[in-house]
Structure formats: structure tokens, C-alpha cells
Design a protein that fits this description.
Layout (H helix, E strand, L loop, with lengths): L2 E4 L6 H8 L3 H9 L5 H9 L14 H13 L3 E5 L4 H16 L3 E5 L12 H9 L4 E4 L7 H9 L3 E5 L6 E3 L5 E3 L6 E3 L15 H16 L3 H4 L3 H10 L6 H14 L5 H9 L9 H18 L3 H8 L3 H35 L8 E4 L8 H12 L3 E7 L2 E7 L6 H6 L7 E4 L3 E6 L4 H11 L10 E4 L1 E2 L7 H7 L14 E14 L5 E7 L5 E7 L2 H12 L1 H8 L7 E13 L2 E11 L1
Parallel strand pairs: 1-14, 2-3, 2-4, 4-5, 5-8, 9-10, 15-16, 18-20
Antiparallel strand pairs: 6-7, 10-11, 11-13, 12-13, 16-17, 16-19, 17-18, 19-20
Helix pairs in contact: 1-2, 4-8, 5-8, 5-10, 5-14, 6-7, 8-10, 10-11, 10-13, 12-14, 12-15, 13-14, 13-15, 14-15, 15-16, 20-21
Length: 587
Amino acid sequence: MEKWVVSAKKADFKKIADQFGIDQVTARILRNREIVGEQAIEEYLHGTLESLHAPKQMKDMERAVFILKEKIKEKKKIRIIGDYDIDGIQSVYILYSALSVCGAEIDYAIPDRIADGYGVNERLVRQAAADGIDTILTCDNGIAAACELSLAKELGMTVVLTDHHEVPYEETADGQKIFHIPAADAVVNPKQPDCPYPFKELCGAAVSFKLVQALYEEMGFSPEKALEYLENAAFATVGDVMSLVGENRILVKEGLKALNQTKNYGMRALAARNQIELGKIKAYHIGFVLGPCLNASGRLDTAKRALELLLAKDEYTAAEYAGDLYDLNVSRKEMTEKGVREAVELVEQTSLREDKVLVIYLPDCHESLAGIIAGRIRERYHRPVFLLTKGEDGVKGSGRSIESYSMYEEMSKCKELFTKFGGHPMAAGLSLPEEHVNLFRKKLNQHTVLTEEELRGKIVIDVPMPLDYISKILVEELNILEPFGKSNEKPVFADKNIHILSLGIFGKNRNVCRMQVQSQGGTVMSAVYFGQTDEFLDFLGKKYGNDAVQQAISGKGTDMAVSFIYYPEINVYNGKESLQIIVKNYC
């Protein structure tokens, strides 16, 4: 069971609450999210599009705009080269649509995940030259493609690079970093060490959106016209799991408003196919429902299908593409579940169970699903996980880590085993010969200094809040903290010694437990737990006896007292509102 700890960050919560007209609970949550200082709190609570930074603050932005304007005027052929994930698809859509409006001779190419791999490669560059392309415009990639873009220059093409990934570097013996920036005609990436742009965490589509804002201004369009692509930048920011702080938070907050009134046939059709009403789309739906449909095309088919959805010119075509993507995502989910089951079976039934670092080899698993499955296994066992699959040229894999284990550093200790590897502390990708799989597992576990405590997992509680404190006003105020996502997670509340008065198990898969509970202060309300309900009943049975559990199921009241981690909400049933808690965990 995970360790529960309370966030103990200090501040004058009463002063903050009084100054900004919020509850002290909300003030505590802001402090826990490192929203510190009047300006930061004001921007977080009330930031608008006017708070965004000017695109031309980005290094080479004006140069990129000048080049594109000239190429449009001269009717030169421009090719966008994007990527096959949500961010790449939305980036291509933004640039292709906007440059088309500007009258550009424009087309696009998206790499195939398996045949091409990530980003610009030699085949795509040579194909562009063969097709008479004058200018390559990258989006969501290119910063790590120095060789490929040098080839483009050698073949006589102009290169405008837009990206958001880290700039590759070498570290000298004295600790200095030597950055390697491709020799493009313009490089627009806020992560460049000498880029003065104040906010560094934009996704690729947000960088593309900024480029369009600057280009439209130069072309004489009104600023509002560029805002047509705000919803796409917001969608990609959530889909690419960017931190929802600063400028990103404003982009997503305002972009969700636009998305909920979208005129894009593809977006409307995709929401309809997933039975999501326009006006009710939240960041959650992008991350877990709509986004995976776009990603599924790049994983199992071609990302061009997702792009064609966004470019659809009528409802019928859009509905057709939305249906295809929905079906692909259903297949992706089924394949993922199968992979997760096989991975769990291997862990439970072999010596893998003893390992602190899990290296799981599923030869027949689709390589595009390795990262998703690794993430699911990591959540289940709270261990670093590498999920390996058999590719055409040896074994490929993806890793997902825990906070106390830097994947890239640990892989660097046995880099001689790989044909290729890369990543960062929390995630990694690799290729290696099949005969090195067992040695890779052995070396990682020999080198690791992970302790049992680090493998236990931890839940950080924002506010230990008695159920008696929950009110409709507070629950409604908590809505100002949305959109939730990375670095702005949904708040975590907890209360102890909550008595279970009654409970019932519902749902086709018996995965919903509805309870009536009573706090120590006497407040009675509904509680709902979505999850492994049989495990929950087993937990209660071991602690209080099966008779007590049956008594609760019969609605007769019990002495069973539990601590809950929860989130409060307002439940509406038959037009009547009532407070309830959604239980996330128990002990």
C-alpha cells in the first residue's frame, strides 16, 4: 500500500485568501502547485489571452516569417514535415491551414512510425528534393536532425525549423555544455539557450500557433484570425502532456472555450462519435478520450488519417474519418489490454517478480504500444519498467520510470548493450540485439540502488479536509483551478475515521461502489469508489469481518471506519443537487 503524506508547504494562507477572495483551502492548493507571489497568483486565477507573450520575442521568429512571406509571394513550393503523434498532427494542421489561407504552395509529409521513425529523415529530405520542394518547414521536430537538415541545405533547399524539444548538447570535461543547433535558415524553438522568449514549456503546436500569429500580423490579417487555431494548440498542449502552468495554462483554459464551440467538422464529429457533448469537453477528454483517437492513427495506421479528419470539408466526410479513428482506438485499447495481461502474467509467474527494475519482453506486442503498456505496469507495481518488443531489426522498447530512478542515467551505465537509446529521467526509448535482452535486465538490476521505501509509492495529500468542511460554494470555487493536468493536478483531499453506513456494488463489471458515509463531525453524504471493488470489500472483510460487510450491503449501518483520499463534487440527480465525494484511495 502507498505511503500517504501531507504537503507541508508554508505560506500566509489567510492573507492570500483575503487578498484574492478565495477559500484558504484554495490558497493552500495554489502554494502546493508552486504558484507563489501576487503576479503568479493573479495570472493563475485571472490570466487571459492578453497575458500571453508576444510571438516575436522568440528567437528567429521574425526571420522565419520573412522567409515564409517571401516564399509565398514567389509561389515557391513549401513542404511541412511533422510528426505522427497528437502534437505533430495538430502542428501540421495549424501550419498547413494557415499557410493555405496565405496563398502558399503548400503540402505536408508525416513520417511513418515504424518505417521512418521519429522526425525528419534522409528519405523524406531526398523525396522533397525529388518533388521540387523549395522550402522544408518542420514542426514538432527537427532540432535533433542536424545531419538530415544539412543534407536538405546541400540539396539546395531552404529550411525553416520549428520545434519545442531539448537542444542536443555535449558536455565537456569541465562541465560546459556545447549545444548542437542544425544549420537551418531559421530556428524557432524557445528551448534554444539564447532564445529570450520567457516561457520555455510550449508544445510543438503552440510554437506553430505563435508562428501563425506573427505571420498573419505580417500579412495584414486581424489578430482574431489567428485565434482560429487556439483550440488546436490547446488540444496538443494537453495531448503532449505539457505542464499546465504559466502560458500553457492560459492557452488550454481559453482553447477549451474555443474547442467547446468549434466549427471544425472533424473535431465536432470526433466528439459526437465518442458521445461527448460540445460545451462539456474538458482537458480530461482530450487526454483520455479524443486525444488517443488521434494517436491511434499514428500507432496502428497512418497519422495522415487523423490530419484528414481535421481537414474535412463537410459533416459526412468528417463522420467517416471519426468512425475510422474511433475503431482504431478501440483496437488499440484491446491490443493494449492484451499486452498488459501478458506482461502481468510474466511478472507474477516468473522471477521478474523479484526484480526492482522490470524488463519485460513481449516479442509479439505491437511496438507502438510499448510505452503505454510500460506505463500501465509501472502504475501497478510502482517500479521502473522497460517493455520490449521484437522489431524488424532486433528488439525495440520503451521505458517508463518512477521519481527516484533516472532512466537515462541508468541506461548510460550499460550503453554498450544498445544499438540506439535516448530519453530523460522519466521515459526512454531503445533498440538492442535480442541476445542482449537478459543481460540488459541483469545489469540494470545489479546497478540499481533503489530501496524498498522508494518502491512503495507515495500519495501526497494537498489538504486533510474533514467532510464537514465541504460546501457547494467551495466545490464551485475549486472549478477555477481547472484545467487539470501535468503540474496542475486535481487536488487531493483526505479525511479519516469515516464510518460506512451502507454500500452497494454496481456496474456491468462490478467496478462501482456507492456508499453512504458519516464523518466524525456527523455529516452524512454519498461516496463513490470506481475501481477494484472486490479488493475493497476484501480489505473491509479482513479488517472488520464479513458480517460487517454484509450488514453494510443490507443498509443496516456498521462500525466500519476508513480513511479516504477523495475529491468533492456536486451530484445532480432528477434535478436535485447534493454533495458527494469521489473516493480515489482508502486505508
